[in-house]
UniProtKB/TrEMBL annotation:
Homotetramer. It is a multi-pass membrane protein. The keyword Ion transport does not apply. It comes from Cardiocondyla obscurior. The lineage of its organism: Eukaryota, Metazoa, Ecdysozoa, Arthropoda, Hexapoda. Keywords: Membrane, Repeat, Transmembrane, Transmembrane helix, Transport. This is Aquaporin AQPAn.G.
Length: 251
């Protein structure tokens, strides 16, 4: 009974969120998502009428932005900056329920603020239309869009689990780069299809600022399912056991 009670307390995480340090962690999530949306969505802005930002440009901007933020904020809050990552870590038992809820709220607030600031920083012509809004290709159905978002978010959250697993020594020091490259490669594949969100907060910010809510549900349902499945798969099948901890990654 005592073990069950202790496990429930750890899952809820009430003690964790009452510590003063938790406020710093929340600030880090707000700041991280704020900067991610400003920098990432700025790469989606077209400055000439004849040439739009290419997929490679957008992919590396988002990927390197996350890698940079993870290097700075990782030791503070884990640098989730993405509700799908937080949900995935909740499912795998690496993030408490109340911490996850708090993080998601802060990520959404940071994304909306970042999108609003970016809108104000751009000249009238560039800020006239939606800035950084994720949208489906005209020939892509909602079902196809959700599936694509599930797949790319599954990959991202799976990588996050792998490179932050304390039992793995092969990825030490490389976590930010690995996560950033994963985001870049997912963008290269999915930007033409769905805009490659894999982050509900990143899609929410521009949608709220520009009052464009068409298909926004896709960018919540897809990534949250993908993140949750990744957390479950890693916990149930891919997490290294204590017995093979030393031998599995001895190259």
């Amino acid at each position: 009974m005592g073990k069950l009670s202790r496990g429930m307390k750890e899952f809820v995480g009430l003690e964790e969120i009452t510590k003063l340090d938790f406020l710093v962690m929340l600030f880090a999530e707000i700041l991280g998502t704020f900067l991610l949306v400003i920098i990432g969505c700025a790469s989606c802005v077209s400055w000439t009428s004849t040439e739009s930002p290419n997929v490679l440009h957008i992919a590396f901007t988002f990927g390197l932005a996350v890698a940079s933020l993870a290097q700075v904020l990782g030791p503070i809050s884990g640098c989730h900056v993405n509700p799908a990552v937080s949900i995935g870590l909740l499912v795998s038992g690496n993030c408490s329920f109340l911490k996850t809820v708090s993080y998601v709220i802060c990520q959404c607030c940071g994304a909306i603020a970042g999108s609003a600031v970016l809108k104000q920083l751009l000249p009238g012509k560039q800020s006239a239309g939606p800035v950084g809004l994720t949208a489906l290709h005209p020939e892509v159905t909602a079902g196809q869009g959700v599936t694509v978002e599930i797949i790319i978010t599954f990959l991202l959250v799976l990588v996050v689990h792998a490179v932050t697993d304390p039992k793995r020594t092969d990825a030490k020091g490389w976590a930010p780069l690995a996560i950033g490259l994963t985001i870049s490669v997912a963008h290269m594949a999915a930007v033409p299809i769905t805009g490659s969100s894999m982050n509900p907060a990143r899609s929410l910010g521009p949608a709220v600022v520009d009052y464009k809510y068409n298909n926004l549900w896709i960018y919540w349902v897809g990534p949250l399912i993908g993140g949750a499945v990744a957390g479950c798969v890693y916990r149930m099948g891919l997490k290294p056991s204590k017995e093979d901890d030393e031998a599995s990654y001895d190259f």
